[in-house]
Amino acid sequence: MPDNCDKPPGPLAGVTVLDLTTMLAGPYATLLLAGLGARVIKIENPNSPDPARGNSLFLGRDGLTAAPEHDDDLSVAILDRGRNKEAVTLNLKHPDAHAIFMDLVRRADVVVENFSPGVTDRLGIDYARCRDVNPKIVYTSISGFGPDADPTRNKAVDIVIQAMSGLMMASGAEGEPPVRVGIPIGDQAAPLFATIGTLAAVLRARETGQGQQVDVSLLGTMSALVAAEPFEMERRLGHATRSGNVLARLAPSGVFPTADGHIAISAPKDAFAAGLFRAMGRPELIQDERFSSRAARVRNHAILHEMVGAWTGAMDAGSAAALLSECGVPNGPVRDPADAVRDPGLLAGGETARLEHPVYGAVEDVVAGGLPIRMSDAFTGFDKPAVTLGASNADVYRGLLGYGQEELERLAREGVI
């Protein structure tokens, strides 16, 4: 982790976030807020903490393992999503927990939750009750299908969201089965919008003194992103909407084979297309009526893409990239994820980051996402490893709320924390 010394505060310094989320979508939203400098307090039931704590793989004194081998082994999921967060335990089902939670709400700016519909009402921690004790509170809810969804459809997982949003039928080629995007993109995209909405509501609360509830759903997010592409209009015009690894309406644009892998090329503009033809050693194609304009290249995309693939297939990716770059053509190698995330520039800039165990440090080369936001006069990123379940109880309950040691011992003894 980076050294903490002499760093300017994060842009959200002074903002306190109560994190009631589990698994990926919610914890990723609060991870972003933590990376921007907010104080994020992750609240977990001591009897049934975030299920991600049980996700394989694990990291500990012996390095990376498929299953925990020691009591202090931690899941990579928690080491990733728990960075820069404090971790407290609070059994919200216990009758004495409600008052403690509301003590936290009084001192907080934001609550983020991703419970199933109806759970916050049953626990007595819904937005209305939080607003009663803190009118400035911003209460962000992340759900699968939105607050007005059919109550029988209250569970969402990423593959279901990809299917229902139309995303699976936007990838792959015509006639092929649906294609799942290889990362949990719904679980990762919805938190981006949740973070944007939360920050906008915090700004509004500072201006007006009134907080509000922010609702973001995974299905709504992914459907909005799918709708950004003109699939329906393309189909109305008789065009294929699934084109695999090439994009006909931006021809020449696609992923093409090389002797040692693949390379992505996108040259829709006339200047880019001309550069591609020069790189191919075929400058005469610039004047060929089949390819001399963008509209012509789109009409003849099949033969054009075939020509490009034949050219790239005869050389290695590095040689093709060098020629294309020399001619000003956008291109890039298709990299394995392990190589891509270890790009030295990304690691140096904090866009990706190596994970550390809170006790044993960087015992193995495990790379996770960083915070791809840089600011000139504020620190952004992750400089504190995740902590174990309940490790922050004293700092929060004593330091923030002012509870005495005897009270903490009683609460622990009675199963409240």
Which short descriptors sum up this protein?
single chain, 6-stranded parallel sheet, 3-stranded antiparallel sheet
Summarize the structure.
With 417 residues, this protein is α/β, with parallel strands linked by helices.
Q: What can you see in these coordinates?
A:
The protein has helices spanning 25-35, 76-81, 97-106, 119-123, 127-133, 158-164, 185-208, 218-227, 231-236, 270-279, 294-299, 301-313, 317-326, 337-341, 344-349, 393-400, 405-413; strands at residues 16-19, 39-44, 58-60, 63-65, 74-75, 85-89, 110-113, 138-143, 213-217, 253-258, 261-266, 331-333, 352-354, 367-369. By secondary structure, it is an alpha/beta fold. Strands 6-2-1-7-8-9 form a six-stranded parallel β-sheet. Strands 4-3-5 form a three-stranded antiparallel β-sheet. A three-stranded antiparallel β-sheet has the order 10-11-12, with helices on one face. A hairpin with a 2-residue loop joins β10 (253-258) and β11 (261-266). The model has no long low-confidence stretch (mean pLDDT 95).
List the helices and strands and how they pair.
Layout: E1 16-19, H1 25-35, E2 39-44, E3 58-60, E4 63-65, E5 74-75, H2 76-81, E6 85-89, H3 97-106, E7 110-113, H4 119-123, H5 127-133, E8 138-143, H6 158-164, H7 185-208, E9 213-217, H8 218-227, H9 231-236, E10 253-258, E11 261-266, H10 270-279, H11 294-299, H12 301-313, H13 317-326, E12 331-333, H14 337-341, H15 344-349, E13 352-354, E14 367-369, H16 393-400, H17 405-413
Parallel strand pairs: 1-2, 1-7, 2-6, 7-8, 8-9
Antiparallel strand pairs: 3-4, 3-5, 10-11, 11-12, 13-14
